[in-house]
Amino acid sequence: MDGYLARKRGQITTMGMLLDPLADKLMVCAAYIILVAYNPRIVPAWIAVLIIGREFLVSGLRSIAASEGFTIDASEIGKLKTVIQIVSVVAAILAHRWNYWLFFGGKVILDVHLIAIAAIYWMTTVSIISAVDYFWGFWRKIDHASERARTRRKRTSVLSRNVKPPKAPLAAPTHPKG
């Protein structure tokens, strides 16, 4: 939301572009680490490791892309993953206190525990798919970037082989006049 507002208001800064994704990753990592301790029945440790690993992978790919001169934009599945992450964190927190919510005098039962588990596993699945999507997009772009770099090097090396530096003229022998 903050990125959307910054773009809409024209308040984009280099510092914001660097810190915003970092803050998002830190928040996600902290949430899942705490949820493992807070509600391990809903969020097993292996899921937290997988989610945190995915966040590091995507951040690393974006860093490499930036060093190579291109960007990897957020995909639609990545945005969906973020929404599902928020829902799953809230659901896991609620499931710590309640297993069921009763509505309309007990006529409607909402299984909070089941919703939390479904949200966590759905989020895990979408996170894996999103990671593959980011990696695939990165691979295509880095492959094109490296092909361009190889083509430039070939052109440069071909030119450098054909162009020979001029030979220095031989110095005329010095003879004493006399």
Summarize the structure.
With 178 residues, the chain is mainly alpha-helical. It has helices at 2-9, 14-38, 45-67, 76-97, 112-162; strands at residues 100-103, 108-111. It has a two-stranded antiparallel sheet with strand order 1-2.
CATH architectural category: Up-down Bundle
Helix content: over 70%
Q: What do we call the CATH topology?
A: Four Helix Bundle (Hemerythrin (Met), subunit A)
Largest sheet composition: 2 strands, antiparallel
Report strand order across the widest sheet. Answer: 1-2
Query: Total helix count?
Result: 5
User: What top-tier CATH class fits best?
Assistant: Mainly Alpha
Low-confidence stretches: none
Count of spatially separate domains: 1
Tell me the number of strands.
2
CATH superfamily: CDP-alcohol phosphotransferase transmembrane (TM) domain
- Rg, alpha carbons: 29 Å
Structural class: mainly alpha
Separation, N- and C-terminal Cα atoms: 93 Å
Assign an overall shape: elongated
Order of helices and strands: HHHHEEH
Summarize model confidence as the mean pLDDT. Answer: 80
* Percentage of residues in DSSP E strands: under 5%
Please characterize this protein's 3D structure.
- The protein has 178 residues and is mainly α.
- It has one domain: CDP-alcohol phosphotransferase transmembrane (TM) domain (Four Helix Bundle (Hemerythrin (Met), subunit A), Up-down Bundle).
- The protein has five helices and two strands.
- The protein has helices spanning 2-9, 14-38, 45-67, 76-97, 112-162, and strands spanning 100-103, 108-111.
- Strands 1-2 form a two-stranded antiparallel ribbon.
- β1 and β2 (108-111) form a beta hairpin.
- 16% of the residues are buried.
- The mean pLDDT is 80.
